[in-house]
Automatic annotation (TrEMBL):
<protein>
    <submittedName>
        <fullName>Sulfotransferase family cytosolic 1B member 1 like protein</fullName>
    </submittedName>
</protein>
<comment type="similarity">
    <text>Belongs to the sulfotransferase 1 family.</text>
</comment>
<dbReference type="InterPro" id="IPR000863">
    <property type="entry name" value="Sulfotransferase_dom"/>
</dbReference>
<keyword id="KW-0808">Transferase</keyword>
<feature type="compositionally biased region" description="Polar residues">
    <location>
        <begin position="251"/>
        <end position="263"/>
    </location>
</feature>
<feature type="domain" description="Sulfotransferase">
    <location>
        <begin position="7"/>
        <end position="238"/>
    </location>
</feature>
<dbReference type="Pfam" id="PF00685">
    <property type="entry name" value="Sulfotransfer_1"/>
</dbReference>
<dbReference type="GO" id="GO:0008146">
    <property type="term" value="F:sulfotransferase activity"/>
</dbReference>
<feature type="region of interest" description="Disordered">
    <location>
        <begin position="248"/>
        <end position="270"/>
    </location>
</feature>
<dbReference type="InterPro" id="IPR027417">
    <property type="entry name" value="P-loop_NTPase"/>
</dbReference>
Amino acid sequence: MDRRDRSLIYNDGNPNKVKKKLLNYRVRHLEVGRPIGHLRHLRKVKSPRLMATHLPLPVIPKRLRQGKCKIIYVVRNPKDNAVSYYHHHRMSTFLGNYKGSWDDFLYLFMKGYLVYGSWFDHVLPYWRFHQEHPDRMLFISFEDLKLDLPGMVSKIASFLDRPLSPDAIEAISNHCTFEQMKSNNMVNREVLPITDLFDMTQSKFMRKGIIGDWKNYFTEEQNVAFNKLYNEKMQGSGLELIFDPEEIDNRNNNGEMATTTRLDNGPVET
């Protein structure tokens, strides 16, 4: 999903063109790369250049925000994001292989004391930028990709002005399911140029990829505190996210997915 989709879209939806090339070489990271001359190297990459980043919007180079560049932002509901980030910190050697408890990690997450800062401070500026410049930024969610991957592939291709045939959309969708990518060494980080970035005995880079895993971690007290913070930070934003797979079955009058703009303090059920 996400940058894997885009890489395939620019290869006409043909998995054979990318199946032997690591994702790292297909889609370069803006802030991660050569210790010397990284940006100079990126400028030499043949256009159209595909780049990925985790940087907050205010520190993205102005030329990327104001130029012809198109940006695709993928958000995940913050509860599942916190759980995923917890395991990412446990496995990441370059982040110190976090040894603390889930309770302590959630505290750090809610305070914005982790790498890349607060989830809210990261997401909301991109969301507002998308609202102001929908032609230059596509804002989608992890949950969107999970629930309708073919539809999202088509939407991404259209945004990039790279229309695809139904067969190409199907090929990309089949190649980019979480289950398929988890077993694909070109994207699952099992094979990397630098071998000591991740400790896979702590967690796999691609772990579960589901909606609602947060219910297996959040206590009732944590859920109440998080909902209070979420409602305060997101008030008036209009951003709607799915937190619970049960929401998928609830349709509004327009037949669209039921989504959440405000969190209630109901019981945590697993």
